[in-house]
């Protein structure tokens, strides 16, 4: 199993959106958490900014993933297609999965993608995975 992430997420989206439209980041975050849905047209300037930065996030993630996988020396050892699971608080916004799939469709990976889904508990998935890894390491010692 492999894990991959970039250091650009919800707090950055809030700050950049707030700066772009000259509104407090706390207000932007409140709109994001209350009403943002990436599957529908934005209702106001805050949602417009958020949607732009979400699209940028997913584009950056996919381009970085493409670069990483295309530079792997042992990529031929992988199966023909792999599943992807999105996690973290950033992907809890409705429409994130569709927005990520759209960005993924714009790149060329050296392996296929069999499925893209959200973790059952996106906010805790990474921490839970890290905990399981530590427990498995302790058990193997």
Question: How would you describe the overall organization of this protein?
Answer:
With 141 residues, this protein is mainly α. The chain has five helices and two strands. The protein has a two-stranded parallel sheet. The model has no long low-confidence stretch (mean pLDDT 90).
Note poorly predicted spans: none
Proportion of residues in β-strands = 5-15%
Q: What is the helical fraction, as a range of percent?
A: 40-55%
Shape: globular
Number of strands: 2
Specify the number of helices.
5
Main beta-sheet strand count, sense and barrel state: 2 strands, parallel
Spatial gap, N to C terminus: 20 Å
Highlighted features:
mainly alpha, 141 residues, 5 helices, two-stranded parallel ribbon, globular, 54% helix
Short description:
Helices cover 54% and strands 9% of the residues.
Write the layout of secondary structure elements.
Layout: H1 10-21, H2 25-34, H3 45-70, E1 81-86, H4 96-104, E2 112-118, H5 122-140
Parallel strand pairs: 1-2
Helix pairs in contact: 1-2, 1-3, 3-4
């Amino acid at each position: 199993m492999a894990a991959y992430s970039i250091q650009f997420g919800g707090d950055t989206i809030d700050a950049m959106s707030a700066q772009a439209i000259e509104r407090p980041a706390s207000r932007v975050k409140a709109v994001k958490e209350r009403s943002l849905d990436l599957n529908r047209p934005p209702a106001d300037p805050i949602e417009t900014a958020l949607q732009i930065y979400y699209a940028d996030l997913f584009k950056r993630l996919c381009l970085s993933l493409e670069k990483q996988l295309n530079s792997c020396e042992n990529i031929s050892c992988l199966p023909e297609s792999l599943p992807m699971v999105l996690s973290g608080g950033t992907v809890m916004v409705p429409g994130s999965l569709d927005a990520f799939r759209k960005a993924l469709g714009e790149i060329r990976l050296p392996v296929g993608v069999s499925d893209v889904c959200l973790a059952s508990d996106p906010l805790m998935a990474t921490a839970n995975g890290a905990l399981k890894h530590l427990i498995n390491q302790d058990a193997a010692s």
